[in-house]
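hey so u asked for the seq, here:
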Amino acid sequence: MKSEFKTKLIQHILNKKNGEKGFTLIELLVVIIIIGILAAIALPSFLNQASKARQSEAKTYVGSMNRSQQAYYLEKQQFAPNLQTLAVGIALKTENYGYGVVRNGGKAAAGVLQSVNTFGTPIPSTATAGTGTTSDTLVGSASAPVKGYTGGVNVATPSGSTEATTLAALCEAALAPVNSGNSTDSASGTDRFVLFATNSAPTCQSASTTTGFVAIQ
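ran it, structure tokens below
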């Protein structure tokens, strides 16, 4: 039955019983069944909105880490190796996500493309802060109901330009880990998430529809 019809049926039953002592058992059962159906239809939408609200945290934080890395590079000519050094005011672990940084080559590494990955890992089972030049370590939960997020920043000289600059990408996992999506582990190998280049911005790794990532910024 359509929702509009169900609503009208309930209203009809309520109007019919005005001035009477109460409902018959059948009418009461009909009302309960209709309310149950409406609740079943609304529940998935409610749960989806709840997941999106939790995911907005990771989307915001990973984007902030990207921008902070770009600012850090302007000052230091290299990227911060971990969240502690980046000093962006984001906790290593929250209720729904773990956050961290993996640097790929510093300014002392001659001939190496300078780049850095940022992570929003769903409900991490491991969240270890890096110190000194050591990167953070995050291992996500395979049963997490929220999507993973990852970002990348690299130094590149865009085609048609003679000046190097920092370029960034923000990527969202195609699916949540509980739906066979990527758990976005920082230790899994950064090329699984973001691809870097010397003449363009990083690109999200979308090798497959289930474990790949989609660019959102």
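The chain has a mean pLDDT of 84. The longest helix spans residues 25-76.
lmk if thats what u needed
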